[in-house]
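Issue 218. Parser rejects a valid record. Input:
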Amino acid sequence: MIDWVQPSILFFLGAAIVPFVKGKARSALLLSIPAIALLTMVVSSQGMHGVINFIGYELVFGRVDKLSLGFGSVFMVSAFASLVFALHVKDVREHIASLLYVGSATGAVFAGDLFSFFMFWEMASFASVFLIWLRGEEQSSAAGMRYLLVHIVGGLFLFGGIVLHVGSGGGLAFTEMPKEGLASTLMLLGFLINAAVPPLHAWLADAYPEATITGIIFLSVFTTKTAIYAMIRGFPGLPILVVLGAIMAVYGVMYAVNENNCQRVWCYHLISQNGYMVTGIGLGSELGLNSAASLAYTNIIYKALLMMGISSVTYMTGRRKQSELGGLFRTMPWTFVFFVVGGCAIAGVPPLLGFVSKSIVVTVAGEMNQGWVILMLVFGACGTWLHPLKLIYMVFMGEDKKIPASDPPENMLWGMRILAAICVVFGVFPGLLYGLLPYEMDYKPYTMAHLVKSFQYMGFTLLIFIIFLKKLTPENYISLDTDYIYRKATAGFVWVAHRFAFLRNIT
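Output the parser choked on:
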């Protein structure tokens, strides 16, 4: 009897088969893969599975515990909704890239050794870049190449760290890594790049907005959350992560204020949200790690919903800038409703999903007397509520630009319905979320103190929004970020190479 099936195999097989089926059969195939994969996770027994001896080392392709099951299950739910959203896509190459990407990220989550983890990690990087390139524009081609180069560098850091760790007798098992040493530092750098931790973050806002309409939904979930999983597994309680995470929480919302491109707003917002998770990992207690995991799970759901909303607007109008949009609630009413649900969920409005997860990390920081961390996280929380307000107003309310539009195809609406329903159900019944966390937890979100604080944050942010509404009106300019450095460095390298080539030719 087979008691374990590596879920990634199902996605890889699906990617091989999907070019040969069309119509309803293709839709059925795409949706059955995450559904069957989730079923295999539900019935799997915890422990080590798929163990293979290789040149004296044990490769573990199936480490099943509460952490891997939690990430794997939420990955499957998000993949199912995202594939529903993408059913109308005719380009089979996009479906292949999506399946390979999701399968690789899922394989990394269940990998029990560093070698197989690295293998799946790299496969995810190479599969995901095609979701950018397949947009078929000059900007997407360039952004995809920059994305790939950054992740190759991150992969080299990770591989170098693994080689040094194993070579020094650390073993191949992917468990908690040493807090010091060159090997651990290199591995951590690899994880930090994929988690988009400043100043190693600019690839995300650079590349994701250039992806295909549906590709950005997948991209917003799997790369950064696989990195969050890896840090929970390998570097819990590392103090530097508290500092980096708190900076991320503020940095992302500050940069999002300046953005006109709706997708770039959510990309910077994603960086901010990841900061809360990194902070929880750095705090290191069981409740801290639970806070990181719960934020990862919930962010996967409502961030994908928000990306679906903006992608629907782009798909139906051909526009991505806030300054070009307005008044769409009249012509895209269902998209407006689902976007509001996602915006309220990410802002922590009760009784939605974000309300039952976002405050846990602040509670942990309070228990550890980290006052400055609390201040930065609260500032980030106010920014988190500001940006949904801004986009709801600029895109759907505000000045009616008389843009001819309608709600997107039914499959795209169903993708949003699924995630919006999860935001409500898991917010009303938080035990469903807490049951997925790696450690037992007795946390009660619906207390008077928590409700009052949440409404205070929202009321303060709403007041700021009303007072500074004119100042928040987006303008058409490009925000410089740390990618400016390697863009100029690359241009300089090319210039020098051309000069050397010229000198060689004349000699």
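Fixed in the parser; the record now loads. The chain has a mean pLDDT of 91.
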